UniProtKB/TrEMBL annotation:
The chain crosses the membrane at residues 80-104, 116-140, 160-181, 201-219, 234-253, 260-280, 300-324. Belongs to the cytochrome ubiquinol oxidase subunit 2 family. It comes from Cellulomonas algicola. GO terms for molecular function: electron transfer activity; oxidoreductase activity, acting on diphenols and related substances as donors, oxygen as acceptor. This is Cytochrome D ubiquinol oxidase subunit II.
Amino acid sequence: MSATLVAAVLLLAIAAYATFAGADFGAGFWDLTAGGAERGAAPRDLVEHSIGPVWEANHVWLIFVLVVTWAGFPEAYQSIWLTMFVPLTIAAIGIVLRGASFAFRKAVVTTRARRVFGGGFALSSVLVPFCFGAVAGGIASGQVPSGGRAGDPVQSWLNLTSVSVGILSVALAAYLAAVYLVRDARHAGDGRMTHYFRRRAVVAAVVAGVAAAVGLVDLRSEAPDVFEGLTTRALPLVVVCAACGVGALVLLVRDAPRGARLLAALAVVTLIVAWGVAQWPYLLPGQLTVADAAAPDGTLTALVVAVVAGVLLVGPAFVLLYVLAQRGLLPEEGVETADADAVDSPRR
C-alpha cells in the first residue's frame, strides 16, 4: 500500500512540474520565436512580467520528483540514470543555463548582453522539455533495462518514440504558456498581446494534438503494453484529456478564454496521469514493477510522513506566492529598458 501511495504522489508531482514549470519552459519558447529586439520587445516584456515572480519556485517540483524516486524506488532511479544519463545531464545543464540567463538578462543593461543571455534562456527552455520528454518516451518503449544494466546511451532517447514524445512535450509547454499569457495580457488590458498569444495558443494546441496522435500511433508498435493501457483502463482519462483540450481550443478560437487556462492545465494533468495508469503496475514497462522497485516499508513510511509534513509546511507558501503573483502584488525585478537604451547610446 505504501508503494502504491508513493507512486501516486510521484505521478502527481510530475504532473505539477509539467503544469507549472512546463508553462515557464513554454514562455521561453515564445521568447525564442518573438523576433528581433524591437519586434519582440512587447511579448518578451510580458513573458518576463508573468514568470519573473515564480520561475525559481517551480523547479521545486523537479527536486521533489528526484528525491522521491531515489528514496522510494532506488532500483528504478539507478536504472534510469544508468541509461538516460546523457539527456538528463543535458536537461540539468539546460536548467542551470536557463535560470542564469533569465536572471542575468534582467540585471544587465546593454542590448548586446541581453541578447546573449536571452538566447541562452530561450534555447534552454526548448531543450529541457524535449530531453525530459525523450526520457519518458524511452522508458515507455522499454529502452531502460533493469537490474543494474545500462541501455544504449544514444538509441535509448534518440528513437522515434522518444523524439515524438519530446516534440509533444515542447508543444504542450508552448501551449500552456500561450494560454496563460493570454490571461495575463488580458488582465493587463493589452489587447494586442492578448490577440498575439491567443493565435499562438491555437497553433500550439493543433501542433500538440498532431504530435499526440503521431505518438499514439508509434506507441502501438514500439510500446504495445502502454498503448493497450491507454486504450483500456486509462481510456476515460484520455477522453477527459481530449475533451479539456478541445474545450480550451474552442474558448480560445471564440475569444472567450475565461476557462481556457483551467481546461488547458487539466488536459496536461490528465494526459500525464493517463500515462501513469497505462503503465501500471510497471515503473519500467515489462521489466520492473512498482512493488519490485520499492524501498523497504520503513523507508516508504518515513517518506510518506516527510511528504505530508512538507505539504503542510511548504504548501501554504506556494499558494500565497501564486496568489500574490496573479494579483500583481509582487515587486518587479531587473533594470529598466530605458537604462539599457541610455547605455547603448553613444555619448555626445
